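B., you asked whether I could sanity-check this one before it goes into the benchmark set. Here's the sequence:
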Amino acid sequence: MKNRIILTLFLSVLISVGITGCSDDDKLPVDFDDLNVTGQPFATEISSEGSTNINKLDPASSTFSKTYNLFSLDDGFDVTNLSVFVSFAGLTTTADEALLYSIDPSSFNTSGTNPEVTINYNGADILSALSLPQTALEGGDVFNYRLAFTNADGVFSDVSANFDNQSADHTFGSTVVCIAPPPAGTWSVDMADSYGDGWQPLTGDGGGAGIIITLNTGEVIELGLCTPYEDPGYPCVDQSSSGTQTFEIPEGTESADFYFAGDFWGEMSFQIYAPSGNLVASGGAGAAAGPIAINLCNE
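And here's what the prediction gave me:
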């Protein structure tokens, strides 16, 4: 199976590096003496609530939150300010980065080992920070966010190539969509796997469906390319490299939540088409698990 092949290759590489290192230390690819702890403050995301999508039709209705743990040589307690910046990359216009929120330590939860902070985002705040009118939004536009931390040594945002902050979560994005009832009819999803062995979203062997759609009626639709390594456990497409799967959304459906389960090997890609034939979502190889932004602005 693929995971065993990769493991064998990995062990072979390790053995090769080990033998070479014994005879020629100066050829090691990493100089561990250079990997110093920076001491710069950073944050890791521990939870996220709500979709990060921004509704073009009603931006003020778009709200979500993210909770972070703060870290530094002083366990994050030396952070005197957390700033959130936002910029806009639109199809027809752009907006330079601007300050969205400035959060002082009085808003931190300091009851644990490290300070914890929850940031509440609102679409109206985002447009206001950028002086961006709602009419400038188009489906597929992207807002980009960046966190910055202030302590006695300065302001820090970058993630260095050092051991101490490789788990930092300082940037993310949100997509402009039109949140409306999904069009009734036959939808289709084109799916591909670059390795040619079906989809393995959660484990090296599979782990279930790659795309999960939940209608407001409670109906759940599962999609994906069948994995040969285990019983898929859902009605997948029996193709290893690429395939198309269709599904029906009935008349009167009020909402449909699309979710991508993950891409364990970094090989999966997809395109989702509405009954009109319009492309409404896509995902490339290595996409992270999470809600799929469905762009209904052209429907």
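One thing to flag: The domain at 185-291 is CATH 2.60.60 (Lipoxygenase-1). Otherwise nothing jumped out at me.
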